[in-house]
Amino acid sequence: MMLSLRDTELEDAERAIRGVADPEIPVITIDDLGVIRDVERADVDGRPGLRVTITPTYSGCPAMHAMEEGVREAAERHGIPVDVVTRLSPAWTTEWMSEEGRTKLRRFGIAPPTGDRAHGPVPVGLQMRVVRCPHCGSDDTEEVARFGSTACKALRRCRECREPFDEFKTI
Amino acid sequence: MSDQHHVDYLLGLGDDALIYAQRLGGWLTHAPQIEEDMALGNVGLDLIGQARALLTRAGEVEAADPVRDEDDLAMLRDEREFRNVQLVEQPRGDFAHEMARLLWFSSYQCELYAALLTSGDETLAAIAAKAVKEVEYHRDHATQWVLRLGDGTPESHERMQQGLVAVHPFVAELGEDHDAARWASEQGIGVLPSTLTEAVNASVGQVLERATLTMPDPPRWYARGGREGIHSEVMGYLLAEMQHLARSHPGATW
Fold it and tell me: Where is the secretion signal located (chain B) (predicted)?
């Protein structure tokens, strides 16, 4: 099928929208986060445009507003009218974060959410959750504060390399 | 006027979250350590988020002309129109007092939002699904501190026990039924507060036992009337501070 000029324009705009950076953690995009649930073609005030459906991470996350603005700006840059819809249900979970997003977080020094089990042998203990140090890879880490610099993060420290680091909380 | 009950029920939930968030915000720079400034600020932030969604929904259901949005409802209502329980409006005491209040309130919210997952008001069910994970985290935080203080030094144990005694007269109101809740529960939209009491008491009781603390004796008086707009004296001062900017500079943005 031949793509009309309009199709390419919409695709470019969609790519730009999915590429909007998280305002708090600029190394990942809102698409990596799983905040964007849907991008579809829609009539926006009688013009062909995009309807973007987003799901908030935390109820009170101040970054949500910035993310929504980011989506609008990205669409505007491409001259595409956009309609941003917020969908609450189903509730956002860290399981929606992409593998690529997790890798980017780790490289940035933030331990990604850990739904996953440890990959190798771990010390036997009561703590079931293994949080790996993003700096040295050790599983021997401890929680310093349950509430970190943003709603989505906790503060931990590595017992092996002694570095403190943020952990993206699993919800 | 059945819809007014729906609005009042949502306002009760939203106002509890909003007013407690305002009180928790008062801890910033006053907590015993900087991590706790962050923690109480973060708990308040979650509650503000819940309040925004709940008040927005209340405005939608009310469908006034023009529709009152979250800001109108938070900033332009007077004391008698607020539907929160008196527990959340009480001024901040010492840190142990706050942990006692947070333990009770978050335990109540855990049971509440879990029950609202099946609400016939789909927006309310969606808000509850998001909020339930947040308040479990709040309860866990309060639990850690109550254990630490209760099972700590004689001084920390004593002050934790005093905190529990101080908040006890305000706890019963969380489980008190009122007209809006009765209506909401009959409609399958809300939950009757008294049906949560047993689970909340059990959950708090378990923590107190592990913390070597004792459940205070039944108080000789208890607070009531918040759901009908009857508040304690401190509420007027709280609103004066919270609403001052919005009322002095209507529509201000920055």
Answer: none
